Amino acid sequence: MYNLVVFGAPGSGKGTQSARLIDEYGLYHISTGELLRDHIARDTALGKVANEYISKGHLIPDKLMVDILEHTLDSNPETAGGVIFDGFPRTIEQADALNEMLERRGAAVDAVVGLEVEDKELIERLLKRGQESGRSDDNIDTINERLKVYNNQTAPLREYYIRQGKYHGVKGSGSIDDIFNDIRQRLNKGRK
Ligand code: AMP
Fold first, then answer.
1. Residue 11 in contact with residue 172, Cβ under 8 Å?
2. What does DSSP assign to residue 91?
3. Predicted local confidence at residue 190, as pLDDT
4. What's the rounded Cα separation, in Å, for the pair 153 and 17?
5. 167 vs 90, 160, 182, CA distance in Å?
């Protein structure tokens, strides 16, 4: 069992690298952003609430997000074999809750991959994605807000996981293959 957190700012490539990691390690993928967008697309009650926050570039409240995550773990028994957490945790409260949730299941966060990309490149990538994704949050005002939220609420998790000896920072710019190879090397070293 191996639980991996893929961590980084919006546009850092979490989704892209998570897809590669799933193929490599055969883990269950939970992207909280995708999960919420799926609810929005189906216009569920949760989707309506989530859209209020997402379209402004704000985070969904911790309690709600943690409940959604726990429900996802409970309703997908395959998650017991190991998960890639993509976009979760995004606050210290969520990280503490994740530790507790996994501990109750006899597991832990084994490693955190941090994709490190400069702000200028993040903005360029997100604007480009916005032209194709149709995502309500890939426009310049919301992007700036998301980066602010990231720096204030999410970035402190880097230190949090460094202190726990779990953080593997990887340069997140360059070719997708090169970044993936870096991640693989870092993780394989840590797993030996
Ligand atoms: P993402 O696809 O990971 O960029 O997430 C898109 C948006 O979904 C974020 O900007 C937040 O509004 C919301 N979201 C996703 N994951 C979380 C989370 N762990 N906590 C709070 N909000 C989240």
1. no
2. S
3. 65
4. 23
5. 15, 9, 14
Q: Exposed (0-12), middle (13-18) or buried (19+): which is 78, by Cβ within 10 Å?
A: exposed
Helix (H, G, I), strand (E, B) or coil at 54: helix
Residues with CB under 6 A from ligand 1: 10, 32-33, 36, 53-54, 58-60, 65, 87-88, 90, 94, 137, 146
Q: What is the pLDDT of residues 28-73, one digit of tens each?
A: 999 999 999 999 999 999 999 999 999 999 999 999 999 999 999 9
Specify the ligand 1 atom closest to the Cα of 137.
10
* pTM for this prediction: 0.95
| Interval between CA 192 and ligand 1 midpoint (Å) | 32
Distance separating the N- and C-terminal Cα atoms of the chain = 14
> 4-8 and 83-86: which strand pairing?
parallel
3-state helix, strand, coil in the chain (%, to 5): 60, 10, 25
Rounded distance between C-alpha atoms, residue 30 and residue 38, angstroms: 12
| Residue 8: strand, helix, or coil | strand
